Fold this protein.
Amino acid sequence: MSQVAPPRRQPKPLNGVDTPTLFATIEAVAGAPDLARFQFRASNRWEKGTQSRTRIETFSGAGGEHTHIGDVEFPADHPKVLVGEDKAPTPVEFLLHAIASCLTAGVANIASARGITLTEVRSDVEGDIDLRGILGLSNEVRNGYQSIRVSFTIKGDAPPDKLRAIVEQSRARSAVYDVLTNGVPVTVSVNAG
Amino acid sequence: MSQVAPPRRQPKPLNGVDTPTLFATIEAVAGAPDLARFQFRASNRWEKGTQSRTRIETFSGAGGEHTHIGDVEFPADHPKVLVGEDKAPTPVEFLLHAIASCLTAGVANIASARGITLTEVRSDVEGDIDLRGILGLSNEVRNGYQSIRVSFTIKGDAPPDKLRAIVEQSRARSAVYDVLTNGVPVTVSVNAG
């Protein structure tokens, strides 16, 4: 009766997630909370019309400065029907990329921590927006999305209820879901002339 | 005394913005509000670990279906310090791309509508986040950013106060600023098994 706690499972790498290092990271941060303070950064440069490019190069966290080693430059534009040249998706569509990829990374980490092998994770996101807001045609229509819907398909070596619980836990701990649903203070300053 | 309204300025293309078409679009939507109903979409597919890719291909609006003609596929990952492979920026960094590029597209459109030629528009964005939230180490720390700061540099053929007013008007009509500061309902559904 003394062993009521389940035996601690030895984590193994799974789904491409280095699960032992993930657990070690969480333990390290638990012991030194300042390691958890991150600052992410982006620098955007206008090109012409509605086109711009953003570089996402450096960030701080885990007690140091870091430089990304993968893709770091991303474009944005407006479509032709909104008087752009459609060189790239609109800024609001990158919000959909952010929510889908955040929930999906969480799903992979959580499944791996739970010892579940995933075979497929897909998600489709839709956002409804009434552009009378941003076009200045109505003060009663908000500028941004009115609603966003994310629909996941998830397959792996666990029953459907356990797979659904992984998505739910990812949602409950998603940074992007929190920002999109609860909002965040944004300040805008200008150096002009 | 009958002509108190200023003479209507004939808009000209400026800054790479097709200003006449922009005004014509706004007039068309004013006359047929249903044209303003847009739906943006994204489809994400998990690759491995924290890596996934999102395709942003189609959207509806202006009374029809449309397919993007520019870049449509974008990756996301976690950095090595967060147990990813750093093939691409994190999902939360794409939120910074979204806010910078949205404000910048608005700046270009508004400057052009006001007859102001821009020579430079840059912005730096920072977001502060305490990862004890998403790591499940604290229920008092939020999962998402605690604050986001956007710093613009804008130059053109207008006095600084008019250039600052362009950024302010862009902020006031930005779809991404609205979503990030006010939040939006996000629903997540799951097809498992």
